[in-house]
Amino acid sequence: MRKIERFMQQKNLHTGDVVRVVESENGTTVEYEGIVMPPYELSSGETLTLKLDNGYNIGILVDNIVEIEVLEKAKPGEKKEFKAVLPKNPELPNVAILGTGGTIASRIDYKTGAVHPAFTAEELALAVPEIFKLANITPKLIMNILSEDMRPEYWRKIANEVAKALNSGEDGVVIAHGTDTMAYTAAALSFMLGNLHKPVILVGAQRSSDRPSSDAAMNLTCSVRMATANFGEVAVVMHGETGDTYCLAHRGTKVRKMHTSRRDAFRSINDIPVAKIWADGRIEFLREDYRKRSEGEVFVDGEMEEKVALVKSFPGMQKEILEFFIDKGYKGIVLEGTGLGHVPTYLIDTIERATQEGITVCMTSQCLYGRVNLNVYSTGRRLLRAGVIPCEDMLPETAYVKLMWVLGKTQNQEEVRKMMLKNYAGEITPYTRFDTYLR
Ligand code: GLU
After folding, report:
1. Residue 84: inside a domain, yes or no?
2. Which atom of ligand 1 is nearest to the CA of 103?
3. Per-residue model confidence (pLDDT) at position 432
């Protein structure tokens, strides 16, 4: 049982009771009167949510409650109106939360076991009331899919919604997303959003909201905090370690899900994270080379060539795998080579056939950490002669998304090569820092 349920049981509190609560935080005492709202699965389980007379919902940490008195018991069978009015405080920044699906944006109906999107303003207010202390929140559910079903057309839709929000007065955007392919979406938005000058933060949850160890509430709170920061890029905000002390903001082109189930599954690869967001709301930037917040119209540069494949090289790989893409008219292939960027040597002729037919072939490494280098071994040198583009320290998934975006603009081979090797959104670092490996 979570803290809130235990507290309600001890105090014999029920949803719908009218109560007077005295909250004490850092020596400041505040008194509230309101209606007890149902404890919400997505929340940290440590907050009593009250609906105040003015219609606003507030969350009070159970640990901060020094006095509680029931003024009126809920009448059995009586239906209370639980419509939330989201507070608008002119002193606070404005943040839009766009729901796309995945664990973070859903709640489980215990009676039916069905999973529903939790993105009405009402539900969000009940779920994580802490965020209303940080910003004026405008929630919007734009799709409700598992992120394994994400596709370029949806990346474009998300990019359009982000641009619309930022160009109409929002100071930052949070995108609630399934974790499985969140890094691909982060990379896609990093390339698609032109003249970006405000925070665009992707957030998810590794543990579903019905589990006491859920990371959903803290991740959401930290992402809203990051969305109000002096930052103007795309980042993924997720737990930084297994406890509940801080989240990390990772650059959208350098991040990867590295664990199936741990709360700290997301890591920056070949780079350090942008910032630490502590549970108390403090932001500690870990680097200086990030774009700061400024004014200006964001635009969407969202054309993508979808006939691009991401192919992993492995011992015994058959030529016909690559021939398939050539024969099917693919325009680009990103190879996830072994080590410094190799494939079985008997495939090099087929790769040369691909480049001669105008197909762009890019090389990344399945090691993930480190840079590709095709100048060291004869296999690499032969691949270079076959026209392969070595993608430096770019993640394979980022190179895949980038190649789609580049081929969406030009199919001129020389142009494509230049663009693949140019750093647009932090996807290529000038040199690999020693302290970026497996931290
Ligand atoms: N596999 C689903 C997804 O990525 C659910 C898990 C999650 O949200 O992390 O959307």
Report:
1. no
2. 8
3. 86
